Amino acid sequence: MNLTRKHEFDVVGIGNALVDVMARSGEDTIEEFGLPKGAMSLVGLDFVQQATSKITPESYISGGSVANTCVGLASLGAKAGFIGRIAKDDFGKAFDGDITKAGVTFRHKAAHRPHDSGDATGRCYIFVTPDAERTMATFLGVAGQLTEVDIDTSLIENAMVTYLEGYLWDLDRTKDALKHAMTATHQAGHLVALSLSDPYVVERHRDELQELIEGASSPSDSSGVYVDIVFGNEEEVSLLYKDSFSKAAERIASNNVLAALTRGAKGSLILFGDESVTIESKKLSGVVDTTGAGDLYAAGFLFGLTRQVRGYSDLTLRQSLDHVNLEQSGMLGNLAAAEIISHMGSRPKVSLAKLAKSEGLIS
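Above: the chain's sequence. Below: its structure in token form.
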């Protein structure tokens, strides 16, 4: 390959800037808080106050779904950027310091707000039960106040892929910000990737998410509001079309979108056009915490994809997808996901680049 395609960034992510409050818990704690096990619930300050008095956190780790993906990309050796909103408080300083130290360019031109304004940096309470399942309660704080003003189009114009967090589709102002980012990305001739994020997100916004996926079949739409790449797990995809996973996967495959669908212990299924690739999951001795598994799968997959499309500078980014080795990208996704579920927390504890080299996935 002739690696002459010029972009400063491989991937720029837009998502909730959160600090993860990690705690081991029993089933009774989840029931006491009234949380649906294995899913994400939005909570208010009253929950924060209750949780603060009742749980003993094991750790505080800067998180957020797409932010985790960006850190994973940086660990693999990619150039990643992140756009999100934080407050001028201790949690905000921690998030800023952590993500920057990890090698991610963090842009928050409208993010810092005085703490005395009554706003605060968002945080996600993650309860990990003995079965390694994670149940999340998210206090968005200022993360949920992301608007078009926060979208740094200069950053987007210098990235091959803009990766969006489905959680942000829950609020009108953040939804408008994502649409603005999609339009800017496609006007630059680049690719939009979207994570479905959570079953509850899919149930709340099924019709709109389907429209985003189906829009890839007619990208001449001047609005530019559609996705080129979609990430989702088995439950999310089945809910998206209210059908079995196999039939839902067929529905996605009928659109001109690249779909990377994770299936837990069953591995993942990658679909694009007439191509279908099944990636077996890595054999693990034990699973400690599934938090961030999908986020890191996306990191590995996008890393593999952007490395490859750089080599097709004579094609548009959209055209170059026809030449991507989907299996290689999927295996990198599996590798990153396997590392993250081997310990508590949603950020890598070892260099993913060294790990990928040791497995012969990159040179």
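Residues 113-117 have pLDDT under 50 and may be disordered.
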